[in-house]
Amino acid sequence: xxxxxxxxxxxxxxxxxxxxxTVGAALEALAANPDFALCISDFLLPDRTGLDxxxxxxxxxxxxxxxxxSAFLESEVEELVASEPAVALVVRKPVDVFALRAQIDAxxxxxxxxxxxxxxxxxx
Length: 124
Fold this sequence. Notes:
The structure is a single chain. The chain is α/β, with parallel strands linked by helices. The chain has a single domain, classed as Rossmann fold (3-Layer(aba) Sandwich). The chain is built from 5 helices and 5 strands; from the N terminus they run H-E-H-E-H-E-H-E-H-E. The chain has a 5-stranded parallel β-sheet with strand order 1-5-2-3-4, with helices on both faces. Helix 4 links the parallel strand 3 and strand 4. The protein is globular. The N and C termini lie close together (about 10 Å).
């Protein structure tokens, strides 16, 4: 439900959003579209974790950054996530989608892109 709401908020802000329900689907979408500016994922996905996705992203597209959302991360896992080069931001649930939208705008702009028309992969 949060993914749908965030997709709507991002779409209204000019982003082109692709939603995926699994790490596998996200990797397929990212491989098919080199224009993605950012990947946003829940930590727990049906087939693997968001940390697994971050590691694959870093291997396949080292320039692509990721926002990872979680309701709870154990401190050891949080340290692993924070040290992962692909992870630009970790957000705690419940998520304020409008505040997150502002953070996403800043991340996309810092990467040299503009929010208007930027492609975002959204999983979870």
